[in-house]
């Protein structure tokens, strides 16, 4: 059993190099900020795989902590995967969010903290003749473009001795990819978290390779924020991250409770959510082993005060 994993934060931010594409979200950004130690409102982006954020929303611990700093309201905004969340953060609609390690490459944001990552897997149907990732040449492989699943797919291909052009990429969100997988319209699917566990439990998907069995595919979850927000409201951001870190430790010691809550929120079977928890535990342990054995694993940076 792995030890509870704390969200790690550092003192200085770094920026990514490409600006996010312009979007209709920008017109909603507004000018609700003021100079000071606490933001008047605080918006948190989350995904279905973010069990800790579901827990934080339900317990309202962040709300209570930030209210003492002068934050009047905490908003929670759901996203299907990381790229749309990045767009919202870049536009100022969301202040902080949790994504995989790939989406931040495409946006001008700062790393706020690192956290446990759900396991990612490259799946095929039970009836598929493919047994190895090396057999994906010419196959239709689905994943969310610009997501951590995108990076996992590239890593899996590289380890298998294949190039990106050797397969047929199919860019789908998790919901659409799930339907395509069940109907047989794709040959393989790279996915993480609840969808990963659901595909194995409900659709009897078979794993070709994953981030728990092959440390070369190890992934990270990262909390990100817009640079301007991190610079102006560092105290607000640090307080929210501290609350999340405490919840992360609690969740590591109460996995069944977290699974029940996540199942209630997402509508997935509780056993599927428990399976997701096991994937997270294994992925966290794998990443620790990877970080101990190599200096090349990503090192997220953090907020400014």
How would you describe this structure to a colleague?
- The protein has helices at residues 51-59, 61-67, 82-90, 148-159, 174-183, 193-202, 227-232, 234-253, 255-266, 270-293, and strands at 41-46, 73-78, 96-100, 110-115, 120-124, 140-143, 168-171, 188-192, 206-210, 221-225.
- It is an alpha/beta fold and 305 residues long.
- The protein folds into two domains: 41-116 and 220-275, 3-Layer(aba) Sandwich (D-Maltodextrin-Binding Protein, domain 2); 120-217, D-Maltodextrin-Binding Protein, domain 2, CATH 3.40.190.10.
- The protein has a five-stranded mixed beta sheet, with helices on both faces.
- Helix 1 crosses helix 8, helix 6 packs across helix 10 and helix 9 packs across helix 10.
Features:
single chain; 305 residues; alpha/beta; D-Maltodextrin-Binding Protein, domain 2; 2 domains; 5-stranded mixed β-sheet; 17% strand; elongated; disordered C terminus; Putative aliphatic sulfonates-binding protein; Solute-binding_3/MltF_N; SsuA/THI5; signal; transport
Determine the N-to-C terminus distance.
35 Å
CATH hierarchy: architecture of the largest domain: 3-Layer(aba) Sandwich
Main sheet characteristics: 5 strands, mixed
Secondary structure: number of strands? 10
**Helical content band:** 25-40%
Class derived from helix and strand content: alpha/beta
Mean pLDDT: 74
What sequence of helices (H) and strands (E) makes up the elements? Answer: EHHEHEEEEHEHEHEEHHHH
Query: Which strand order do you get reading across the main beta sheet?
Result: 2-1-3-10-4
Q: How many structural domains does the protein architecture include?
A: 2
What fraction of the residues are assigned to beta strands by DSSP?
A: 15-25%
From the 3D structure, determine the CATH topology of the largest domain: D-Maltodextrin-Binding Protein, domain 2
The CATH superfamily of the largest domain is known as: Periplasmic binding protein-like II
User: How many separate helices?
Assistant: 10
CATH class of the largest domain: Alpha Beta
Low-confidence stretches: 1-6, 9-36, 273-305
Cα shape: elongated
InterPro entries: Solute-binding_3/MltF_N, SsuA/THI5
Function: Part of a binding-protein-dependent transport system for aliphatic sulfonates. Putative binding protein.
Family: Belongs to the bacterial solute-binding protein SsuA/TauA family.
Protein name: Putative aliphatic sulfonates-binding protein
